[in-house]
Design a protein that fits this description.
With about 850 residues, the chain is mainly β. Helix content is about 10%, strand content about 40%. The protein contains 9 helices and 52 strands. The strands form 11 sheets. Strands 8, 10, 11, 14, 17, 19, 21, 23 and 24 form a 9-stranded mixed beta sheet that branches. Helix 1 (about 25-35) packs parallel to helix 2 (about 60-70), helix 5 (about 185-205) runs parallel beside helix 8 (about 240-250) and helix 6 crosses helix 8. About 50% of the residues are buried.
Length: about 850
């Protein structure tokens, strides 16, 4: 028997479709604008997201629109993503003004359908309120985590069985009025429903006044139910609709409140980010207020997790041709399975299980998947892994169980039968952990009268080397409620002009969600003024099979360097190197992205990295730097450069005059004219635009046959700009998006992406057919065509599509090379020529499309001469 009731069944719904599985950002902006200015909604739910670098900022347009919605009084809830708990949280859920929702388990559906083999190996019972293995969680680039958890694995959703929608079918292929649904795309609308309940309850006792979005978020996070799991997985805890509604009714300013309501506390912040020097102790505070009608005693505490047994690993051999199969519930196809057991000791607060297999497939390559389900000693179904890989296997899975029963547990490993399945050894690693105190918290137990407040201070240790860790503070009350406050602790990489800062991280893996990373790390450091070059590099401990991307983010949010251990030569090594010549002074960030899938060769591997300055040795020799040069006479020179980094680099030369000019850029990889409407699922007709170094402004315009809005996105996606929406809505067919920086900063070089979105809303027939032509203009230092080199200029094609292909020289770590340069002046006698010879690495788009490198400016060599 299945009965479906929404969280807020009396709410009015405005449904806005901004795309299909993939949503154009510009269509999302139109939907947000419509929801706020036309539909006048109270709550917006956004079950979408993407992983961009940096993951938030003043020039991320969706965040800007969301923040304006919040400013207009609209509460915005967002799904964190379905890429797993290894720091994969997607934007815009990283925005602190919104409510980000991760997923907990709600497993009755699995017992009803047999999914995850729950009925095949279980006793008919199931556990809820574990953290779903698909839930994107962890630590964001800005040192935050998720706000709240809500059921996301899995429940029933209503469906249209008219035959108009292909997804509305049952497991037998027939039409169905409901469907199984899950993911954080479910958790977020559940949170939106609770937000609606909170707004309704608040209005009842506050003279019809509405709470601000900040108050709605404060109520929901303060009344969440602490599950006893890590704060970076659960946030404040699992959402508690009843507690939130009761707190809304008794919130300060209430004119009347029904009798018999429980008393609740409100917290000034739902999480703390504590940043400091490695090895230091950092202190933060949270103000606790009794928003109820009766006194409450509050007990603060802290926790981290310590292993009781250490990691217990075992090898399970699987043969995809085995006759030991079970029908897969959703398809009926046979899946091979193997069972094994392990022991959980008494007193375990958290069970962590990880699965590892080596499919041999690389990024964007299909490969076999292995799944894991866990059953308690009495046969209760507890949890399962949820690999999301379609184009690629995960090679890794992790499952968490809260308060696991002591005794012998059963693990079921299963894979497709036949050629699509996995044959080989699978590693199952389990770790039984206990929650123990960390640092200090004060005061001890204290009592708050109704309306009273008190600060709670917490002090915790910072990692001894650059990087992040996490702890959790819990606040229990005498009403029986306990809420968590995640503590994100970041060690700033120590740097100065004379020394080298170090950082480290540990790679495990992700669940191979399409377009999402397996794992991310972020490291903050400061660049002193006056540095010739910034040199950041990392080295994997042993396995080059993990594909790594390193992204440098400058104080303006630009990404002047994106590189990878997947080299332009096609090889893949154990190191990543990033260089920036003449780096801007201030706080920088280095983001390390682990691409899906991990190799599957080890449960984890560490990497170590360094931040250093002024290590690039580069020089120019020749009369071009000192003497008068005859017009039309070819003058030889040489550039010598040494690679100080840990990986090979492909080096070329980019000659620029000390004269700024505006030039029209040439479209890359596709023509500037293409048809509308576009589909974000197929962008082969849409060009990239190669922005050269030393660019202060880049403006991209689109002239369309229908009203449309142009989008411009930086190579790593963190800068996302659009033409004026209101002008397009008023009928303008020309749209311009512009990015600019003031000296000494520059627009980040590399391949910028684009999109053109028609202005809706549209009827059932969709957007009308049309076309658009893009024009890109860059204000940059003029290219010096009188300078040529043996390597060519990889950025000259940005303005000249006929430019010869560059032939960069590969420079091994520690190697010194000499590049031949020829200068053939063409100016009038006596004219002064000055410029800069940029020593650059080559920007490129990986053949498998998994990443884009910007190319680096590793050194700048000034030159000047007089035409004789």
């Amino acid at each position: 028997y299945i009965r479906i009731v929404g969280v807020a069944p009396g709410a009015s719904i405005v449904a806005l479709k901004a795309g299909s599985e993939l949503l154009p950002n510009s269509a999302i902006l139109q939907a947000i604008d419509y929801a706020v200015t036309t539909a006048h909604v109270d709550v917006i739910n956004e079950s979408f997201g993407g992983n961009i670098y940096p993951d938030s900022g003043a020039r991320n347009t969706i965040q800007l629109f969301d923040d304006q919605a919040v400013k207009a009084g609209v509460t915005v809830t967002v799904s964190t993503g379905d890429a797993g708990t290894t720091s994969t949280i997607g934007n815009p859920s990283t925005d602190p003004l919104l409510i980000s929702a991760g997923a907990t388990t709600d497993s009755q559906l699995y017992e009803q359908t047999g999914y995850a083999l729950a009925t095949r190996f279980g006793n008919g019972k199931w556990a809820d309120d574990n953290i779903s293995s698909l839930s994107s969680a962890g630590i964001t680039q800005n040192g935050r985590t998720i706000d709240i958890s809500a059921p996301g694995e899995a429940d029933w959703a209503v469906c249209d069985d008219s035959g108009n929608f292909t997804a509305c079918t049952n497991y037998h292929g027939g039409l169905s009025p409901f469907q199984a649904f899950g993911g954080t795309s479910q958790s977020a609308p559940f949170t939106a429903g609770v937000s609606a309940l909170v707004i309704q309850a608040y209005r009842k006792t506050h003279g019809a006044a509405s709470p601000t979005p900040a108050i709605v978020k404060q109520i929901i996070t303060s009344t969440a139910h602490d599950l006893g799991m890590p704060g970076i997985e659960q946030g404040s805890g699992r959402i508690d609709a009843l507690a939130a509604v009761e707190a809304a009714q008794t919130w300060p300013g209430a004119k009347t409140a029904p009798a018999g309501l429980s008393s609740n506390i409100a917290l000034s912040s739902d999480q703390l980010t504590l940043e400091g020097d490695p090895g230091s102790t950092q202190t933060g505070k949270v103000t606790v207020t009794n928003v109820g009608t009766s006194a409450l005693t509050v007990l603060p505490s802290t926790r981290r997790y310590a292993s009781l047994t250490g990691t217990q690993a075992q090898t399970v051999a699987i043969d995809a041709s085995s006759a030991q199969t079970v029908p897969y519930p959703t398809t009926g196809a046979p899946w091979v399975y193997k069972t094994t057991t392990f022991t959980v000791p008494a007193g375990t607060d958290r069970l962590e299980a990880r699965l590892l297999w080596a499919s041999g497939a690389g990024p964007n390559q299909a490969g076999p998947v292995v799944r894991l389900s866990l059953f308690a000693p009495d046969g209760t179904y507890e949890a399962n892994s949820r690999p999301q890989g379609g184009a690629a296997p995960a090679n890794y899975a992790n499952v968490d169980v809260r308060q696991p029963a002591a005794g012998t547990w059963t693990a079921v490993l299963y894979t497709n039968h036949g050629a699509a399945g996995f044959t080989g050894n699978v590693t199952l690693a389990t770790d039984s952990q206990r929650a123990i105190p960390v640092g200090s918290v004060s005061p001890g137990p204290f009592t708050l009268a109704p309306g009273a407040s008190r600060d709670v201070s917490v002090s915790v240790p910072v990692p001894s080397v650059g990087g992040d860790t996490d702890y959790t503070m819990a606040l229990a009350t005498s009403s029986g409620h306990q809420v968590a406050v995640p503590l994100i602790v970041r060690a700033v990489v120590p740097t100065n002009a004379r020394g080298t800062g170090t950082f480290t991280g540990t790679i495990t893996g992700g669940n191979a969600r399409a377009l999402a990373p397996a794992q991310t790390f972020a490291f903050d450091f400061d660049v002193p003024a006056g540095q010739h070059d910034l040199d950041v590099g990392l080295t994997l401990a042993k396995d080059p099979g993990d594909t790594i991307e390193g992204i440098l983010v400058d104080p303006n949010g630009e990404t002047p360097s994106t590189n990878s251990n997947n080299l332009i030569t096609g090889a893949q090594g154990r190191a990543v190197a990033n260089f920036v010549a003449k780096p801007q002074a201030g706080r920088w960030r280095y983001v390390v992205v682990v691409l899906n899938p991990v190799s599957g060769n080890e449960l984890s591997q560490t990497f170590t990295g360094t931040v250093a300055f002024n290590r690039v040795a580069a020089s120019i020799n020749g009369t071009v730097t000192t003497a008068a040069v005859r017009s039309g006479s070819a003058q030889p020179a040489t550039v010598t450069v040494t690679n100080p980094g840990p990986e090979p680099i492909a080096v070329g030369l980019d000659a620029r005059l000390n004269v700024q000019q505006t030039v029209q850029l040439s479209p890359q990889l596709a023509g500037a004219t293409f048809p509308l409407p576009l589909s974000v699922d197929d962008l082969a007709s849409v060009p990239y635009w190669l922005v050269p170094p030393d660019t202060q402004k880049f403006a991209l315009s689109a002239a369309s046959t229908v009203p449309a809005q142009v989008e411009l996105q930086s190579p790593a996606g963190g800068i996302d700009l659009f033409g004026d929406l209101q002008q397009a809505q008023n009928g303008s067919t020309i749209s311009t998006a512009t990015v600019r920086e003031k000296a000494p900063a520059y627009v980040g070089q590399g391949y910028w992406g684009t999109y053109v979105q028609e202005i809706g809303p549209f009827g059932d027939s969709g957007a009308p057919a049309g076309s658009t032509t893009e024009v890109g203009n860059a204000t940059t230092l003029a290219f010096d065509r009188s300078v040529t080199s043996s390597t060519g200029d990889p950025y000259l094609v940005a303005v000249d599509p006929t430019a010869p292909n560059p032939t960069p020289v590969i420079v091994q770590p520690g190697q010194t090379v000499t590049i031949k340069v020829t200068v053939t002046p063409t100016g009038a006698k006596g004219s002064q020529v000055s410029g800069v010879l940029n020593v650059v690495t080559t920007p490129f788009i990986a053949a498998n499309g998994s990443f884009i490198t910007t190319g680096d400016v590793i050194a700048t060599l000034p030159y000047s001469y007089t035409v004789g």
